[in-house]
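Table 4 source record.
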Amino acid sequence: MSVSFKTLDLNLLKVFDAIMEERSVLRASQKVALSQSAVSHSLARLREMLDDELFVRTATGMQPTGRALTMAPQVRQALRSLEAAVELPIFTPAVSTKPFTLAANDFTTMVLAPPLLKILSREAPAVDLTIKPVTRIDLAEQIDLGRIDVAIGVFSSPPSRLRTAFLFEYDDVLIVNAKRKLSRLDNAKLAAMPLIVVSFGGEQEGAIGGFISERGLARRSEMYDRVALERALAKSDRPPRIAVSLPHFLAVPALLQDSELAAIVPRPLAKALAQTHAIAAYDLPYSTRPVEVRLLWHERVEGEPSHKWLHEILRRATEGLRRGR
């Protein structure tokens, strides 16, 4: 007799698996939460469909036929696979070896990675991180392809397929070599200083208003408030002098050493650099727009337990930055 899987009631296979395990119609009915008569009826239907007794009643219980013994392992594996497919996956950080890939610039990495790694060492010691540069890659494409689990940065009006969450906020400050003792900083003094700024992409690379747009995602490229700087010094005898424009923050402390240069950097970075380098930070003589650093991820992983956990520990790792503001 030919059996079509398309017309097969999967509940019959659940009954079959229960009888195979319990070797009793009564105990099988309790296992699948059906009446004994319902289990007997299901077994009768399956016997008719497969043209095989499947189970023979004996003094020691329901003994499987050769056909049943052949079917049993595959039926059980199929049922377990279906359960895994429809049930919400469980993520246990303490024993997980799942790797995660983040995208972040060097500023964000410097202020975020130390507290994040402390959390991982305590709560998920076998979880590994890969941090890719948020610049010089097609970030939207990498997120779309699932090659990046979460990006961290400053984004403008992300497309609907991407989700965001607030991490922390910062403004700009001026840093100089600690040997230089600056008195009260005003616009005139600032205008006389050769400045270092960080820009991840210039106008020649398609940056508009300090943002680069790729596949509907606009990410911040100018890591200082250029508009506020130019507005503040608009009435000065000289425009602001951008002596050095860098694609990263890594070289800033070395360039400040024994020089007259000054750098405009995010306030959290200035605080972090002051712990390891001889630099001093000063408030700018003008206000800069508060900048929001946010998480960014694809909608397809929304609610997935491992990703929810990742977002939660990233928020915990930046708690000090939120308190600092």
